[in-house]
Amino acid sequence: MDNTNHTSKNVLGPDVEIKGNIKFAGELTLDGKLDGEVHTDGTLHLGDSAVVNGNINAQSVIVRGKVNGNISAKEKIEIKNKAELFGDIRAAKLSIEEGCTFVGKTEVNPNKVAPTPPLPRNNEAPKAPELAKSR
Question: Which phi and psi (to 5°) does residue 132 adopt?
């Protein structure tokens, strides 16, 4: 028995409406409506007719439908050409196709780099006022 290819693929069609949170492993394709959050270490595919009102935390997310909420992915977020996303996104990698609607803030940090404060420019700071005073 080969356990390396053990990821399950699940599909929730366009006629499915869920009020509540979803937690799964493997892969899920959602074409229906969800009022709630998604938590997974797997991949979430949101189909053309998918509507999600809630936050998504996943390994990878592919958005084709509508999302009203924040998306956080450990690996990658793909926003396809007719998708509508209203919320902030965080991911290691991001792909946005032309023609999508995206309103929100992004944080893409593949190397998980911590922000460093800008170095003070001591040698340039006194020069600017001196030039202004010379005339």
Answer: -70, -35
